[in-house]
């Protein structure tokens, strides 16, 4: 089933979730790597371009996901899960969904405010134009810091989220995690 | 009215423009490239714009044989360390191992191998350019612009591919083609 039901996630939500989850963690590692190879400028340049390309891919997928999730019903909380936990989980889901959009947007702001004006030639296929903002070293540095902060912050949040899912699976032995692989709620 | 004004302005300019009597065939002697020369380059980027810069440090000679361009010689070398683009981060990148690697290869040299005169004031210069320790054939077009006393000025242009020299970083975002546009003032020795 493509769509979510009251007891299960649909294929679209599942594929989007795991694709974005994988890309997002890999992208944080790649972003970190761009800073770690500062003494190898050639490699650094290439990694930056890959980072921007994957960043725009994540942004596009996250926007699709936002639209999909706004037009979908959600599976009901598992029976027996305290209300505060459900609320906390929902809040975190909304937050990380927003961050998968905000983080690449902040990255786009770096490219758009940098005086270097390096085009974003996504996967050497399409040029994504810069956003119309004033360029300066100081404004670029501000967005670099913001982007890094949001990226590492959302990485931590996503780890906590993943930890909670694994906790449900291993310790509570409920279907929380299995539902994200297509299982239905088991009472 | 505008057209009239324009025409009159042009007429007034006429006396200051040199008569095009200068031809390559009349040149002779050994000239050193004067520091007042201008070595500009540009690399286009996708979506318009690109990188423009100059190399303020260079040296060179023209050895011109009267009436026979084919026997003339040109040598030129420049210090890539001096590259100026107006953006310090771009300059740092160009000097780095990603592009010129100025620590390992402090000079870029050109030595002509064949010069062919085409028309009275134009010549095609073939030669060997060495950058990053890699030698490769290149061609430049030179036009005699001015000859005044002991100095002659050539406008020299040429399009080079940077990939043969191991400088292909940034392609295809930045073009593989580097366009050189130089005003070379030679001072007679
Ligand atoms: C390997 C690590 C991850 C695991 C094990 C995991 C697991 C899960 C599970 C089990 C759910 C369903 C929760 C429920 O039904 O209440 C879920 C939902 C969700 N997860 Fe993850 N997740 C991981 C990584 C991520 C990452 C990296 C992101 C974002 C970048 C993310 C974003 C979301 C969102 C937004 C939801 C809400 C449902 C939806 O919109 O599809 N997850 N996750
Ligand atoms: C979900 C998408 C993205 C994630 C998770 C992400 C993550 C990161 C991380 C972790 C860093 C390293 C920060 C540091 O250590 O200083 C980084 C750096 C960077 N990112 Fe992203 N990024 C994403 C999207 C983008 C996009 C779309 C662009 C541009 C179009 C971009 C441009 C950059 C740039 C230019 C840097 C280097 C900043 C600096 O100079 O410090 N990122 N990114």
What does this structure look like?
The complex is a heterodimer of chains A (187) and B (189). With 187 residues, chain A is mainly alpha-helical. Chain A has one domain. In chain A, 67% of the residues lie in helices and 3% in strands. In chain A, strands 1-2 form a two-stranded antiparallel ribbon. In chain A, strand 1 and strand 2 form a beta hairpin. The longest helix of chain A has 34 residues, at 137-170. Chain A is elongated. The model of chain A has no long low-confidence stretch (mean pLDDT 97). The relative contact order of chain B is 0.19. In chain B, strands 1-4-5-6-7-8-9-10 form an eight-stranded antiparallel barrel. The radius of gyration of chain B is 19 Å and the shape is elongated. Chain B has a single domain, classed as Lipid/polyisoprenoid-binding, YceI-like (Lipocalin), CATH 2.40.128.110. In chain B, strand 7 and strand 8 form a beta hairpin. The longest helix of chain B has 12 residues, at 2-13. Chain B is mainly beta and 189 residues long. Chain B is built from two helices and ten strands. The A-B interface holds A 40-42, 44-46, 49, 115-119, 121, 124, 127, 129 and B 45-47, 49, 87, 89-90, 93, 96-98, 169-170, 172-173. Bound molecules: protoporphyrin IX containing FE (2 copies). One protoporphyrin IX containing FE is lined by residues 24, 27-28, 31-32, 34-35, 48, 51-52, 55-56, 58-59, 100, 103-104, 107-108, 110-111, 120, 144, 147-148, 151-152 of chain A.
Task: Give, in order, the helices and strands of chain A.
Answer: HHHEEHH
The CATH class of chain B turns out to be Mainly Beta
Biggest chain pair contact, residues each? A-B, 16 and 15 residues
Shape designation of chain A: elongated
> What's the number of structural domains of chain B?
1
**CATH level-4 homologous superfamily of chain B:** Lipid/polyisoprenoid-binding, YceI-like
Subunit arrangement of the protein: heterodimer
Large-scale geometry of chain B: elongated
How many helices of chain A? 5
GO cellular component, one term (chain A): plasma membrane
Organism (chain A): Shinella kummerowiae
Family (chain A): Belongs to the cytochrome b561 family.
Cofactor (chain A): heme b
